[in-house]
Specification:
Elements lengths: L1 E2 L4 E7 L5 H10 L3 E5 L3 E6 L1 H10 L5 E10 L3 H9 L12 E9 L7 H20 L4 E2 L6 E8 L2 E7 L21 H11 L7 E3 L6 H10 L21 H9 L10 E4 L3 H13 L6 E4 L13 E5 L9 H18 L3 E7 L2 H4 L6 E9 L2 E9 L5 H13 L1
Parallel strand pairs: 6-7, 6-8, 10-11, 10-13, 11-12, 13-14
Antiparallel strand pairs: 1-2, 2-4, 2-5, 3-4, 5-9, 8-9, 14-16, 15-16
Helix pairs in contact: 2-7, 3-4, 5-6
């Protein structure tokens, strides 16, 4: 809801399950107020500057919603009557196209989100017809104004989607292979790993380069929305073009060169990764190679390794188990001194890695429930390593 005195309003940042704490920290760093974690979302309060920055700077958000109305309803007619009372003309004009996206949870009044959106559309259109004898047009593909309606029980929240196209579409993917990792998830994995950008970062199964590119963006302090040029908030009646460009002009990049290594066995994937990195303007910060995981090893003695291997949906069980065992053997053999992380939905295959995990986090890669598992790599056996640690503490 709008705070007219301070020109501040409530917002909601949507994200994936498990990423809420990371997103919360990012939002606090923007200077937002009243930041609260929910399920797959974080709510907060701020002004237009915070809203613009949320779209430009947040790495783990999918979209930013601006809450404009909230009310309770008794039945479907009450829903329509309260929606038609909203001054929709404040948010869009006759020249705008619009679309309405609805989510219904625990409601006895509405069972169908499509019908919920249709009734909201009727209310909006009827208001315009009564007031102007004309109506704005619907465009479900690329609307100028995207309206979000969330119904939980008999509670209705109406919001404007300031992002439009999901924020995971950074603008650097000119090419992508099969099942590429979502950039929002990739950025979250890097943050969860605790990677220090002054140390090497290794992505040995990079695919089309998303993980390595996100690491470079983080290391250089490049906002994920810097490449992207279009947001729904630019179509709003209160859009402040001068403020938006001022925020972009004040971005300060880090001037040091990170050590980022990206490898894939597929020559085609590496070519795609190079093109994506070029689009992101970070080619000089990533060293690409085209080798098998076994043959690849950068000439650095420590750092962070993050692997997003095949999960085995289209592989036989013995082959996927063999792959994960080999992955564990290679990490132990070639990466002592590194901190390794592996994300996978195949918990059975993960047992074949043969390394003791130092921490696990449950996440979702799309609809797949995954485990993001950490491994401290060292020379020799685990018992010897533990003994050495204890001796160092006593010494």
């Amino acid at each position: 809801m709008i705070n007219k005195e301070q020109n501040k309003f409530e917002m909601v940042a949507k994200t994936f399950f498990g990423l809420e704490p990371i997103l919360e920290e990012e939002i606090k760093n923007l200077g937002a107020e009243d930041v609260r974690i929910g399920r797959r979302m974080v709510s907060f309060v701020g002004d237009l500057e915070v809203l613009y920055k949320a779209n430009i700077f947040l790495r783990t958000a999918l979209r930013i919603l601006k809450t404009v109305h909230s009310f309770t309803i008794k039945d479907q007619d009450d829903y329509y009557n309260k929606l038609i009372e909203i001054e929709w003309e404040v948010y869009l004009g006759l020249h705008h196209t619009f679309a309405i996206d609805s989510v219904v949870v625990n409601s006895e009044i509405f069972k169908n989100s499509l019908f919920t959106s249709q009734r909201a559309k009727d209310a909006l259109v009827d208001r315009f017809r009564k007031k102007y004898h004309k109506r704005p047009l619907v465009n479900v593909e690329t609307p100028d104004v995207l309206i979000n309606i969330h119904i939980n029980g008999n509670r209705v929240n109406v919001a404007l989607d300031s992002s439009g196209v999901s924020l995971h579409r950074r603008g650097y993917r000119v090419m992508e292979g099969p099942a590429p990792i979502n950039p929002v998830l990739a950025a979250a994995l890097i943050k969860l790993s605790g990677w220090d950008p002054s140390t090497p970062f290794v992505d040995p199964m990079t695919g089309t380069g998303t993980m390595a590119i996100e690491a470079a963006l983080i290391a250089r302090n490049i906002p994920p929305g810097l490449i992207r040029k279009e947001y729904c908030f630019q179509n709003w009646t209160d859009y402040n073009k001068k403020l938006y460009h001022k925020i972009l002009e004040e971005v300060e990049l880090n001037d040091f060169k990170p050590q980022i290594f990206a490898n894939d066995i597929s020559e085609e994937s590496i070519e795609m990764a190079r093109q994506n990195a070029f689009k992101a303007n970070i080619t000089s910060f990533i060293r690409f190679s085209n080798k098998s995981f076994r043959d690849f090893k950068p000439r650095v003695k420590e750092g962070t390794v993050i692997i997003n291997p095949p999960y085995g949906e289209r592989m036989k069980e013995d082959k996927i188990n063999s792959l994960y065992k080999e992955m564990g053997d290679i990490l132990k053999e070639k990466y002592p001194g590194f901190k390794a992380w592996i994300i996978s939905s195949n918990t059975n295959a993960m047992k074949n890695i043969g390394l003791k995990s130092s921490g696990k986090t449950k996440l979702f890669n799309g609809s797949l429930e995954c485990i993001f598992s950490a491994y401290d790599l060292f020379e020799g056996g685990y018992k010897e390593h533990k003994t050495e640690l204890n001796e160092n503490k006593q010494g």
